[in-house]
Amino acid sequence: MAFDKIFLNARFDGGARHHIAVKDGLIAALLPADAPAGGAETIDLGNALVVAGFVEGHIHLDTSFYGDAWRPHKPCANGFNVHERVAFQAENMAEAAPMDVRARNQLDLCIGNGSMQMRSHVMVDGSVGLKSLETILRVREEYKSFIDIQLVAFPQSGILTSPGTPQLLDEAIGLGANLVGGLDPASFDRDVEKHLDVVFGVAEKHGVDVDIHLHDMGTLGAFEIEQIAARTRALGMQGHVAISHAYGLGDITLDQLKSVADILARSGVAIMTNAPGARAFPPILILRSAGVTVFSGNDNIRDSWWPYGDGDMLRRATTLGYRSGFNTDEELRVAFDVVTVSGARALRLEGYGLHVGAQADFVTLNAEHVPEAVVAVPQGRAVYKAGMLVARDGRMVGKRP
Ligand SMILES: Nc1ccnc(=O)[nH]1
Prior knowledge:
Layout: E1 5-11, E2 17-23, E3 26-32, E4 41-44, E5 49-52, E6 54-59, H1 82-94, H2 99-113, E7 115-123, H3 131-142, E8 148-154, H4 165-175, E9 179-183, H5 192-206, E10 209-214, H6 218-234, E11 241-245, H7 254-267, E12 269-272, H8 284-290, E13 294-295, H9 313-324, H10 329-338, H11 341-346, E14 362-365, H12 370-376, E15 382-385, E16 388-392, E17 395-396
Parallel strand pairs: 1-4, 6-7, 7-8, 8-9, 9-10, 10-11, 11-12, 12-13
Antiparallel strand pairs: 1-2, 2-3, 5-14, 14-15, 15-16, 16-17
Domain Amidohydrolase: 41-390
Pfam family, one: Amidohydro_3
Protein name: Cytosine deaminase
């Protein structure tokens, strides 16, 4: 077979060495490291560790200030409160740089670090209508050869409490959003059933997946998770639903957690956590051992919610591991799996990985193996999308949108 490109001297986690042959943007063959490589353009990877591109599973492209003026964080009056944070965000957005500029800044950052698959929530509600979605859809189009982006129509101001939102969510899918979101059905909209009627109604009507923000803690959060899981099973949507944050899974008893984990696994509902600051968060190993897909994302990067986040899913793996008390190689590989393979499963990506037939989306790392990469977060990466160099040393290269 004639190849377009052959990437020489790639080292895989576990020690296997290959030349990666690429044809039409896909991995066409993994050639033995001593195979002669002629007849195609060759790129020598110099025995760098090669890993599949990172999956940024939860980000907000519309509300970050990254690359804009620094905006000091404003604390809530009495600890974390979603209503207050949403109000601060509206104040901040009124004076922020244009959304497309901020979204590009954030995409350059993420791609520079090696993310080539992304799920972004974009506000769609009575406060902003479809304006933010229209902007982010344009930016997605500009970046389509650099990163694959799923967009969630996200009712940040509530569904029942923000007039017009059910209709807007419906229209958002017609415009090009890929999933429908939700927000704390109990504490925000104060009606779990009616909130989920809208979310799953849009999902059923359009055949799209669901990804719901759930900050509610404790047994209230666990109850909502059970309701979401029941809806998922009733509609046969196993594998098509995710709950983001699910903080409550981190502060219920172990018995309650095991019971909810079983329900999540049976219902095929994935959990997204970014291992947030000093908050309870979902216990990764317990969920995984029950069969739940756990994935991750940076979530907020320099926005009204918090000042942290650097668009680097490898550093996110460090954070996940650090906060989870992961130390063994096996555990460090779990943290890495959360930002790669599990992310791909949650996002239902086709052609993800380093096998023959997969998209040639990969990152080179200066590390001995994955466990070392997770703790060292090496810089000096090269990022290839469909076999094309898109970033080196943290910066995008070549044709910029
Ligand atoms: N963590 C969050 C970021 C943005 N919006 C939310 O509701 N939550």
